[in-house]
Design goal:
- The chain has 380 residues and is an alpha/beta fold.
- It has 14 helices and 13 strands.
- It is globular, with a radius of gyration of 21 Å.
Length: 380
Amino acid sequence: PTLEISGLAAKLKNEGHDVIGLSVGETDWKAPEVFIENEYGALKEGHTRYTPVPGLLSARKSILDWMKDSYSFLSDYNSNQIILNPGAKFSIFACLSAVCDEKDKVAYFAPYWVSYPAMCDLLGLKKKPINGVTFEDKLSELSKILKEGIRLIILNSPNNPSGEVLNLIEMKQLGELLSQYPDVFIVSDDIYSHVYFNGKRAPHLLDTHPSLSERTVCINGASKNFALTGLRLGWTVGPLEVIKAMGKIQGQTTSCVHAATQVAFSKSLSSVKGPTEIQLNGLISKNKTAIDKLKTIKGLSIGALPEGAFYLWVSIQELIESKKISSSLEFSKRLLEDKKVAVVPGEAFGQEGYFRLTYSLDLKIVLEGLDRIEKFISNL
């Protein structure tokens, strides 16, 4: 569904239509100026050749120091326990490849990022989405799935697409359950960790259960926290044997991360620590304005109040129940064709009756998009 919508949006743009893209997975923040200067400097210095597959030692140390500053439970980790990957998406794929065998079962909470099931399909893994309305529902469902037997669970908080964040109490309950199943490996997809509205960074499973670190990897990257989506720099911190296995996989697939980017990013970490207070406050303000506008649109409601990331998870269940629309895919296609607004249908994230909307762009563009959505619904 996502490819169908993005393909149609591109076609309409090429035909000269004024398409408002509220489907993108990035903010309108500019890249840190210091990084641009450091990247240019690194290229001028000749950092254009291969590096070791896991990354330059200096870069791994700098990024691990940033991780330790954010996560005290990583204080005893060393530079052999981190690998730099060409994007956090590949971090997840390489980890699944390293840990799982064909037909192993992989669980993840719904709604989920669209790439989780796709990666499982590519690797011949069995998908076990965890459904439920409340966290308690999902925890109960996970308990059943764990009893059936799974190899790995992927956690994503702040969540894409909903922006929901598991609090420390929920993390503790989750950790207590996972502690009962020592053969289950844990992937913590923390790519939105510092795009968080209620503190320095979002709560983490290892905050409450550091003993699970022996079977947990923490995946992060430059894309969301540093507004560097196009640089393709991710990293994985975790048990040594898993990091080594990921290195073997990466060495025979993508090889190293771009050398100049490694140098530039590691140097920039001395002055840039993630989203600035101004950036986060601006995002929070856009969030509130977009939600206030959505509440006035008949037929729509917010699926969850986001505490992080930069998406709204919008329910169209009222429209489906009243037979005005049949599915989130139909809604998204017709909205794009009729009003030239691109959103992502909920079925791509494993939850029908919703769509994902990005509010992190210029606020005028977001509000114009919402106005068009309102007009579209009024004509159904």
